[in-house]
Amino acid sequence: MRTRIKICGITRPEDGVMAAELGADAIGLVFYPPSQRHVDIARAAEIAAVVPPLVSVVGLFLDANTEQVEDVLSAVPIDLLQFHGGESAEFCAQFGRRYIKSVGMAGGDPAEVAAAHPHALALLLDGHAPGAAGGSGDVFDWGRKLPTSHRIIVAGGLRPDNVAQAVKMIKPWGVDCSSGVESSPGIKDSSKMAAFTQEVHRG
Ligand SMILES: O=C(O)c1ccccc1NCC(=O)[C@H](O)[C@H](O)COP(=O)(O)O
Question: Where is the N-(5'phosphoribosyl) anthranilate isomerase (PRAI) domain (predicted)?
Answer without folding.
Answer: 5-198
